[in-house]
């Protein structure tokens, strides 16, 4: 996966790691690792990352924005009805 290929995919259009894995025909784990490197390289580009964190649909608990894949269950209510985090980029 080339990180520069992610720019047109994520520019103004939030996507989850599973959606990116499907689009890029990669494993979600590989996409997640690539995204961490991509975020570091964005510091040298005219873009910034926008992450809508995972959120429990039952109690509203919001996970940390560093977690890019869907958590298994909520630490607060122990529910498993969790939305996936969404990742996008926008111009600085």
Could you please describe the fold and organization of this structure?
By secondary structure, the chain is an alpha+beta fold. Helix content is 29%, strand content 17%. The protein contains 3 helices and 4 strands. The chain has helices at residues 6-10, 17-24, 28-41; strands at residues 47-52, 55-56, 82-83, 86-91. The protein has a two-stranded antiparallel ribbon. Helix 2 crosses helix 3. The chain is globular.
Q: Determine the number of helices (DSSP H or I, runs of at least 4 residues).
A: 3
Mean pLDDT: 91
Major sheet attributes = 2 strands, antiparallel
End-to-end distance = 24 Å
Q: How many DSSP-defined strands?
A: 4
Percent of sequence in beta strands: 15-25%
Strand order, main sheet: write it out. 1-4
What's the arrangement of secondary structure elements?
Blueprint (H helix, E strand, L loop, with lengths): L5 H5 L6 H8 L3 H14 L5 E6 L2 E2 L25 E2 L2 E6 L1
Antiparallel strand pairs: 1-4, 2-3
Keywords:
92 residues, single chain, globular, alpha+beta, 3 helices, two-stranded antiparallel ribbon
Summarize the structure.
The protein is of the alpha+beta class and 92 residues long. The protein has helices at residues 6-10, 17-24, 28-41; strands at 47-52, 55-56, 82-83, 86-91.
């Amino acid at each position: 996966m080339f990180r520069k290929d992610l720019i047109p995919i994520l520019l103004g259009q939030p996507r989850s790691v599973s959606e990116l894995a499907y689009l890029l025909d990669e494993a979600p784990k590989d996409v997640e690792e690539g995204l961490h490197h991509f975020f570091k390289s964005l510091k040298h580009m005219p873009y910034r990352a926008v992450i809508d964190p995972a959120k429990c649909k039952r109690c509203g608990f919001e996970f940390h924005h560093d977690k890019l894949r869907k958590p298994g269950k909520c630490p607060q209510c122990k529910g498993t009805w969790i939305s996936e985090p969404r990742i996008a980029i926008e111009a600085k």
